[in-house]
């Protein structure tokens, strides 16, 4: 997952400060996600869960309230059907948004868990990880459809 993030940043980095910052947020989120299962139960785990949830909400917010809007606006300028494709992709992204928000609500403030709660946490973390990986792929498609495909046309204008 981290390698795919690096590839996306190399591919689209420098295109837009907003996208660059967002991809940096994605990389930080993935790094924290990867380290979560290795944390010791107690304060280290609590701190990492709080950090992860904070990064997760920041990433979701940046996507929905900055990046997607910018991409849709850019695609709209070309009147080539890319906005419709982007909106379909945005619809697919919503599933992982809902899962991530639920994860945050259920796990932020994680404190002295029982063994059963730890097992449930790890299962929900795994499910969220799969959803995020799918989300990142869809977001990359969205960047491709709404931004990269118009890059040459925009440079000519």
From TrEMBL:
<keyword id="KW-0805">Transcription regulation</keyword>
<dbReference type="Pfam" id="PF04353">
    <property type="entry name" value="Rsd_AlgQ"/>
</dbReference>
<protein>
    <submittedName>
        <fullName>Sigma D regulator</fullName>
    </submittedName>
</protein>
<keyword id="KW-0804">Transcription</keyword>
<comment type="similarity">
    <text>Belongs to the Rsd/AlgQ family.</text>
</comment>
<dbReference type="GO" id="GO:0006355">
    <property type="term" value="P:regulation of DNA-templated transcription"/>
</dbReference>
<dbReference type="InterPro" id="IPR007448">
    <property type="entry name" value="Sigma70_reg_Rsd_AlgQ"/>
</dbReference>
<dbReference type="InterPro" id="IPR038309">
    <property type="entry name" value="Rsd/AlgQ_sf"/>
</dbReference>
């Amino acid at each position: 997952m981290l390698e795919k993030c690096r590839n996306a940043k190399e591919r689209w980095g420098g295109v837009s400060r907003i996208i660059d910052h967002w991809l940096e947020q994605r990389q930080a989120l993935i790094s924290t996600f990867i380290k979560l299962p290795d944390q010791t139960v107690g304060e280290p785990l609590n701190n990492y869960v709080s950090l992860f949830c904070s990064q997760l909400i920041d990433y979701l917010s940046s996507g929905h309230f900055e990046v997607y809007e910018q991409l849709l606006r850019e695609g709209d300028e070309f009147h080539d059907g890319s906005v419709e494709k982007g909106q379909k992709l945005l619809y697919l992204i919503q599933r992982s948004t809902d899962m991530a928000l639920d994860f945050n609500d259920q796990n932020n403030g994680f404190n002295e868990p029982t063994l059963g709660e730890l097992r449930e946490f790890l299962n929900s973390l795994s499910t969220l990880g799969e959803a995020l990986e799918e989300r990142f792929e869809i977001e990359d498609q969205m960047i491709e459809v709404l931004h990269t495909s118009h890059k040459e046309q925009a440079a000519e204008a």
